[in-house]
Amino acid sequence: MDLNYTPEEESFRAEVREFLCAELPADIRAKVNLGRRMHKEDLVRWQKILYQRGWGAGMWPRRFGGAGWSVVQQHIFDEEGAASGAPPQIPFSLRMVAPVLMTYGNAAQQQYYLPRIISGQDWWCQGYSEPGSGSDLASLRTSAVRQGDHYLVNGQKTWNTLGQYADWIFCLVRTSSEVRPQQGISFLLIDMKTPGVSVRPIITIEGEHEINDIFFENVKVPLQNLVGDENSGWTYAKFLLGHERTNNAGIGNCKRGLKRLKKIAATQTMHGRPLIEDSRFRDRIAQVELELMALEITNLRVLSAEASEARAPGPEASILKIKGSEIIQQIAELQMHALGHDALLYVRDALELDWSPPSLLADHYPDYAPVLSGQYFNQRKTTIYAGSTEIQKNIISKLILGL
Amino acid sequence: MDFRYSEEQLALQDTLQRFISRDYGFERRRALARTPLGFSAEAWEQYAALGLLALPYPEEFGGLGGNGVDIMAVMETIGQGLLLEPYLSTVVLCGGLIRDAAAAPVKSSILPQIAAGQLRIALAAYEAAGRYDLAHVACSATPNGGGWTLSGRKAVVLDAPSADYFLVSARATGRAADAQGISLFLIARDAPGITLFEYPTQSGGRAADLQLEDVAAGPDALIGEPGRALAIIERAVDSAIAALCAEALGIVTALNEATLNYLKTRKQFGVPIGAFQALQHRMAEMIIAAEQTRSMAIIAAVHVDADDAVKRRRAISGAKAYIGQAARFVGQQAVQLHGAMGVVDDVIVSHYFKRLTMIDMTLGDADLHLARFSEAAAIEPQDA
């Protein structure tokens, strides 16, 4: 047993840290650290900077332009990025559709789409859930009917994240109703500019526009936009799910949140003393810190097993998803509670970086305050999306426990 | 990074597991727990023959030079087998303390005897009013010629009835609960003036309260420097806590295995009860708790040998607090999922549960260690 990183990994960490220090733009860093509203331009700019460095896609194989990192290297990169205030890379293109294209796409698709993804040129979103198909995804009904050289797509996707920015959407569509639900699904790439595609914002609990309904009305999609074989989409979707789960414990993000929570608790006061000296509050922080300490090691155990056995993430990723999502929710909850009655304020403008508080607010409403309640509400999504906690427990029961 | 046990550690576990399945089945264990000794003297000889009793000592004292992870591997298996022998008290706690703090002649005399299975020691550190506070020492050490005279009482001295020696903390200066002024003495069990009130423990072991009346301690009985024993006791207790974490891990793993097996075989309403989602999800939570417990036991094991006392204590307390809670959850749910089978004496589940519960109550419970872990956070610099 050896919990130390190798000298090579340590020097990689130093290299990442140096790069972040030099290349991460100050305004983006500030937005991340203060939890301010992110715009498309911020995320695309950061992707282009990473691409310039050759780190546009850390874990992609080199033959597709990736950096060919190991899971441990990717973990180090994520951890350092989170610690320094780097935004997350948009997962839908890099970690979701790209691995599917690399594994099941044809050469023409790989050559066209992958360079546009890694360079930040194209923004992708995901078309999976439907109004009637959430946890029971295989019951989806958006249909794609072959008509000559194209499919005619009709239906509705929902809970689509950041589709308002997207150039492309990858969709699970029904191409056959004759067979078991899982066997009649295909994986289709759709240009968001195609006539008949429309995006309707869904405003979420905290008042922001992060997700959408996407409607397809007689949308003509060229046959060459089918990935792999018709009616094999469910296989690709399950494969994608495995990649989505890589590093889904979000350890770096949780560590940043915890550090921030402690700082807030040291700044806020109660009875004239720092809140962190109140043992009742501090014990709640300690409790979540312990969960995170354990999860960091559990995560590394899973990663190093994947690395040493050269295999894809297995069902143990469900453990990471359950715990990681609970921890980030608890941290968000404590951050909000640390504010006391300042948590009640809802100042939309305050989510922009250039906002400064009016003088009457300034003495009790610090720069970290405006986002915390919204983040608490927003983070309720983490135990629901990407396979809810209950679905993850079903996976554990079936695949780990054999029940 | 590698989180696996080494080949040697796996071999050690394998050997011990084979011994358990051959000679230490559940019925045998129940019978042993009812004997006057409360454990197996033959097993103790076996452990000596296997090298387990020599594991954490330097080679120059007849040891094998093992580290915290080696002890973790052994204690995990001890947990699986619910072994009753005083390995923790003698080998980890007292032997470890002597290894770290005693003068060379004491080490040369004591450690090889422990390694050979010829000598057992129990730590007499806690007192009745002190709860888990190792600094709460009212027991007095009065200078007497070149040595000391000890008087006072010690409470719940684990494995005292079978011990040949006691390590006794006593105070020459200051008041009870002062960190300074505590000394540690190695006292033979049959020293005049020592009386034991012996009793079994809830989880099948043995313990005693000690009364010391003018017990003579010679100059060579002193372990470490006079008045400065607290730090060395704490260090030894920390390593024992890490070992308890590993023992809990072994039990949690075994309990989950037993419970899963029960869910697959016990039928009600015409189906195995594991077909019910309420129970599936509970079992999933128990598996998650076990994985997190393993991670925390690893954290404890690798910090045992850390010289930075602040860092060490934070990691050890964190692990003990977390595992106390996680093991309580798994233990209670294992009993619940076994239904009435979980609360009878002749099924192993209740014995696992009792041992897990008593591990939490030993050397500081989850609340105490959470508080200690939490207090450390208040003094961290918040530089972010």
Could you walk me through the main structural features you see in this protein, from its secondary elements to its overall organization?
The complex is a heterodimer of chains A (403) and B (384). Chain A has 403 residues and is an alpha+beta fold. Chain A has three domains: 83 residues, no CATH class; 108 residues, Beta Barrel (Butyryl-CoA Dehydrogenase, subunit A, domain 2), CATH 2.40.110.10; 153 residues, Butyryl-CoA Dehydrogenase, subunit A, domain 3, CATH 1.20.140.10. In chain A, the strands form three sheets. Chain A has a four-stranded mixed beta sheet with strand order 1-4-5-8. The longest helix of chain A has 31 residues. Chain A is globular. With 384 residues, chain B is α+β, with helices and mostly antiparallel strands. Chain B has three domains: 114 residues, Butyryl-Coa Dehydrogenase, subunit A, domain 1; 106 residues, Butyryl-CoA Dehydrogenase, subunit A, domain 2; 148 residues, Up-down Bundle (Butyryl-CoA Dehydrogenase, subunit A, domain 3). In chain B, a hairpin with a 2-residue loop joins strand 9 and strand 10. In chain B, helix 5 packs antiparallel against helix 6, helix 7 packs antiparallel against helix 8 and helix 7 packs parallel to helix 9. Chain B is globular and about 80 Å long. The model of chain B has no long low-confidence stretch (mean pLDDT 96).
Could you write a compact summary of the structure shown?
Chain A is an alpha+beta fold. Chain A is built from 13 helices and 10 strands.
